[in-house]
Specification:
The protein is α/β, with parallel strands linked by helices. The chain has 14 helices and 17 strands. The strands form four sheets. The protein has an eight-stranded parallel beta barrel with strand order 3-4-5-6-7-8-9-11, surrounded by five helices. Strands 13-14-15-16-17 form a five-stranded mixed beta sheet, with helices on both faces. Helix 4 runs parallel beside helix 6, helix 8 packs across helix 9 and helix 10 runs parallel beside helix 11. The N terminus is likely disordered.
Length: about 450
């Protein structure tokens, strides 16, 4: 018999719902615990995993054999905020250029660690070019591309032993485009004998995970510490990536590198990267990320760094530069003044961060609001550190400026953009400048 429990307003059910709401308000799931991996170049250290911030990585698109061109692009990526940069090492000429690249970066005071990306012949290049093996700060090995048949284990071991000798961490990066076909075929055969076979996607997921974990455990048996290993299982589909990394995170304690292997071009690549990685990061999964977007023909390579930073910053996981809050515009904002202002201020702040990052610690936490009309403009502006609210359509430009919630002035005329920029500069200097006392 079913008994109905009387409900009395204001008692336990309401209290329970409030507690549940508070749990929802907490935001992120607990961060997954991992081994902390140390990547260094000389005195510069970048930590991955453990309690370290989620790191931003990128990759060059130059021919690594072109030492000058590659060093220039690495400098651009590092100045944009990439904390590690991966370079392709696919031929003897590329391996021979690595030390030259490292030396050029050192002369330019660019201390970003370099990751060598190896496929097929990595065991030979690391053996034949010891300067390359030593100048790199980390190796990336794809277990699906280290050799066929009996050679696979031997050549993988040679690369791991080189990493141990030079004390280098390794990312074991499995990719569904180059998955170990022997492993996949064996698992497909096993699946066909199940009473209730899995669907093909599930078999592929399991093959990726097994390839990554078994390769990592093989490296550990060879003597590479668990704190020297990062894992990745990259695919192109958003739901595929989420499913694989959820399972991978449950089955190992290695630090994890997140990223779609081919995110796509333009808005598609940006949205796919944000959609997949944000879900995982919200669940506490992921220790370093790379956004593999295809640049438009005229775009700079640094775009992938900016997108990665913005994913982390908009989620509240890290701060890289002041955030510009701007309304989208509507029928009350047919003037493009606020759009120009928002664009110019955002570009200006990003450019200034090359200098401000060192001169004004904490400036990356600043919020700037650029609003287009009087409906939500003043309120949003008051919530920001600095805010400006333009009047909207059909009015002479008269824009109140708010600093830390207090209206301080009203800008008018044709030079609103330049005047507001000066106000931002003054605020940064007064608020984040380091005062030297005698």
């Amino acid at each position: 018999m079913c008994h109905t429990i009387p409900f009395k307003a204001g008692t336990a059910p309401v209290e329970n719902s409030i507690v549940a709401s508070q749990q929802l308000f907490s935001g992120f799931d607990p961060k997954r615990r991992t081994h902390i991996v140390t990547v260094r170049w000389r005195d510069h250290v970048v930590t991955i995993g453990g309690g370290a911030p989620i790191r931003v990585q990128s990759m060059t698109s130059t021919d690594t054999a072109d030492a000058v061109g590659t060093a220039i692009q690495i400098k651009e990526l590092a100045q944009a905020g990439s904390e590690l940069v991966r370079i392709t090492i696919n031929k003897p000429e590329a391996a021979a250029a690595v030390l030259k690249i490292r030396e050029q970066l050192d002369r330019m005071s660019i201390n970003v660690p370099l990751i060598g990306d190896f496929h097929y012949n990595g065991h030979l290049l690391l053996r034949d070019y010891p300067d390359c093996a030593q100048a790199l700060s980390k190796y990336r090995i794809n277990p699906g591309n280290v050799g066929q048949g009996a050679k696979r284990s031997t050549q993988f071991a040679q690369m791991i032993e080189t990493a141990i000798f030079y004390n280098k961490p390794v990312r074991i990066g499995v990719n569904w485009g180059s998955l170990d076909q022997d492993l996949l075929a064996r698992m497909m055969d096993e699946n066909s004998r199940r009473v209730t076979p899995w669907n093909p996607s599930s078999v592929m997921y399991e093959a990726l995970i097994q390839s990554a974990i078994s390769s990592a455990e093989h490296a550990v048996k060879l003597g590479l510490g668990r704190d020297r290993i990062v894992l990745s299982c990259k695919v192109s589909g958003v739901q595929d990536l989420i499913s694989i990394y959820r399972a991978l995170a449950m089955r190992c304690s290695f630090a994890l590198h997140l990223g779609l292997t081919e995110a796509g071009i333009g808005s598609k690549g940006i949205i796919a990267s944000a959609a997949s990685m944000s879900v995982l990061l919200q669940q506490g999964i992921g220790d370093t990320i790379r956004v593999s977007i295809t640049p438009e023909p005229e775009d700079l390579r640094t775009g992938e760094v900016i997108v990665a930073q913005e994913i982390l910053q908009t989620m509240g996981l890290r701060s890289f530069m002041p955030m510009v809050i701007a309304c989208p515009g509507c029928g009350r904002t047919t003037s493009i003044v606020f759009q120009k202002l928002a664009s110019r201020i955002q570009n200006y702040l990003r450019k200034q961060m090359l200098v401000w990052r060192k001169q004004y610690p904490g400036v990356e936490m600043m919020n700037v609001a650029v609003m287009g009309c009087i409906v939500n403009g003043p309120g949003e502006s008051k919530h920001a550190n600095i805010g400006i609210s333009l009047p909207g359509t059909g009015e002479n430009p008269a824009a109140p400026v708010f600093i830390d919630g207090v209206k301080t002035t009203t800008l008018r005329g044709a030079l609103i953009v330049e005047q507001f920029q000066e106000i931002v500069n003054d605020y940064v200097h007064r608020t984040y400048g380091v005062t030297v006392t005698s």
